[in-house]
Design a protein that fits this description.
Layout lengths: L5 E6 L3 H12 L4 E4 L6 H6 L1 H20 L13 H25 L3 E3 L3 E5 L2 E4 L4 E9 L3 E3 L11 E2 L12 E5 L3 H12 L3 E5 L11 H13 L3 E3 L4 E6 L5 E5 L5 E3 L1 E4 L3 E3 L6 H4 L22 E3 L10 H16 L13 E3 L5 E5 L2 H8 L2 E8 L2 H5 L6 E8 L5 E7 L3 H13 L4 H5 L17
Parallel strand pairs: 1-2, 1-6, 2-3, 6-17, 8-15, 9-10, 9-15, 10-11
Antiparallel strand pairs: 4-5, 5-6, 7-16, 12-13, 13-14, 18-19, 19-22, 20-21, 21-22
Helix pairs in contact: 1-8, 3-4, 3-5
């Protein structure tokens, strides 16, 4: 085995890369990490963390209105976008500092440059410097996908949305996935006129049909406009800066901001992978085996760049398992079954396991239990907004195959319930658990 400058060279300082670097170093490996932008990756810098903080900020619009029904004499409140924006960006800066401190504490050499591969064990930085490593780990994440059509350059993505100078009076959001629906809820609460356009006829197609239909109904009632089967034709920018969005078969839409939330593509381009024989799928995903190894034995990949499951906790687990396997003497692989997920819409969605359609396809006979109720807080607030909980079970064994929820705090409630689904518990075991009253979560043990 030839000598190398490092045991591990990581490209990309997102959640998966930082975890892999830190744990590998803790196992005694000599580790370097290259990052061309900021330490922390999409989740910390321009993804789930700042977005969740915007969700919290936006929710005060409803909370302040509801407070009057609870006896609080709330005056008309003005909202200052720049205060929220700058405080959120300040928190991002703080978290980036913590991530960098963690790397420094574990003696990981952080190189703030772009790195590309020039050999199976060699990388080149943007300044021309080259380094060798026994193992190279690609953790370059994913980037927003932007459709190609005339005028697309006038739109923004989730990368730029956190830096807007003001809340747009009108915003068009392209896409039907979780990013589109989350930002639709945020901007609607902050006073924007929101229109979602989607080239298909569905939103949140990976979620159970019942909960996504409920979100659509509630969103429409809140004033969000949806236009389906509306592929882009062109966008024209007017002399005053406003945009006119033209879609097939629909009337043009005048807007102040166009936000693309049309999916994310793996960041595999321009790394020099093809010349080394690293296999890349047509969508840009780096092909890996169960140990995150690519088709080149010394090169590995974790996180969104592999497009297995584009979720931060999954990338973290993949990075940790890689480090334990390669440097810790503890070979581990990730179990991708029953991964919980959430959409931080207004109200939020949470799910784990199989949808009703998936369960029927895999198991044939299933039993479905639901609770369709109006949360106590919504009743007193005079808010006509109903929650929906749904449990999908194997009809033969009574095992819970999936849980799907939409309603206040659904993601907070589901995390604990996901343990039960992962453990293979049955509906009877849920029923045998005494309800915690009065809570929304008690509905999980009272489903009929």
């Amino acid at each position: 085995m030839p000598d190398h400058e490092f045991d591990l060279f990581v490209i990309g300082a997102g959640s998966g890369g930082v975890r892999a670097a830190r744990v590998s170093a803790a196992h005694g490996a000599k580790v370097a990490l290259a990052e061309e932008f900021r330490v922390g990756g999409t989740c910390v810098i321009r993804g789930c963390v700042p977005k969740k903080l915007l969700v919290y900020g936006a929710h005060f619009a409803e909370d302040l209105k509801d407070a009057k029904r609870f006896g609080w004499q709330v005056p008309d409140c003005a909202f200052d976008w720049k205060t929220l924006r700058d405080n959120v960006l300040g928190e991002v800066d703080r978290l980036e500092g913590l991530y960098q401190s963690t790397l420094d504490t574990h003696d990981v050499a952080t190189l703030r440059q772009r790195a590309t591969l020039v050999g199976p064990n060699e990388v080149e930085l943007s300044d021309g410097t080259r380094h060798t490593a026994r193992i190279i780990l690609l953790a370059t994440g994913a980037t927003p996908a932007v459709p190609s059509f005339p005028g697309a350059e006038h739109g923004i993505t989730s990368n730029e949305v956190f830096h807007l100078e003001e809340v747009p009076k009108r915003i068009v959001i392209a896409g039907g996935g979780y990013i589109a629906n989350e930002f639709a809820g945020i901007f609607n609460e902050l006073g924007s006129r929101v229109t979602i356009i989607n080239r298909t006829g569905d939103i949140l197609r990976h979620y159970d049909e019942s909960v996504r239909d409920r979100l659509l109904q509630i969103s429409v009632k809140k004033g969000i406009d949806f236009r389906f089967h509306a592929p882009f034709e062109k966008v024209v920018k007017g002399p005053n800066g406003s945009l006119t969005v033209h879609t097939a078969g629909q009337d043009p839409i005048e807007t102040d901001c166009l936000l693309f939330a049309t999916g994310r593509r793996p960041n595999s381009g321009g790394l020099g992978l093809e010349t080394l024989g690293v296999k890349i799928d047509p969508n840009g995903a780096i092909r890996v085996d169960e140990d995150s190894r690519t088709t080149v034995p010394s090169i590995f990949a974790v996180g969104d760049v592999t497009d297995r499951v584009q979720l931060t906790p999954v990338a973290i687990r993949e990075g940790h398992a890689f480090a334990d396997t390669q440097f810790g003497g503890n070979p581990r692989r990730i179990d991708y079954a029953s991964i919980p997920s959430a959409v931080f819409s207004h109200p939020p969605i949470a799910a784990v396991g199989l949808t009703e359609a998936q369960a029927k396809e895999q198991f044939g006979s299933v039993k479905v239990y639901t609770s369709d109720f109006r949360p106590m807080k919504n009743v007193l607030a005079n808010r006509d907004e109903r929650a929906l909980y749904k449990m999908v079970c194997d009809a033969l064994t009574d095992r819970v195959l999936g849980l799907h929820m939409i309603g206040p705090d659904a993601p907070e409630i589901l995390q604990a319930a996901a343990v039960a689904v992962k453990a293979g518990l049955t509906k009877a075991q849920f029923d045998d658990t005494v309800a915690l009253h009065p809570t929304m979560s008690e509905e999980l043990v009272l489903l009929k």
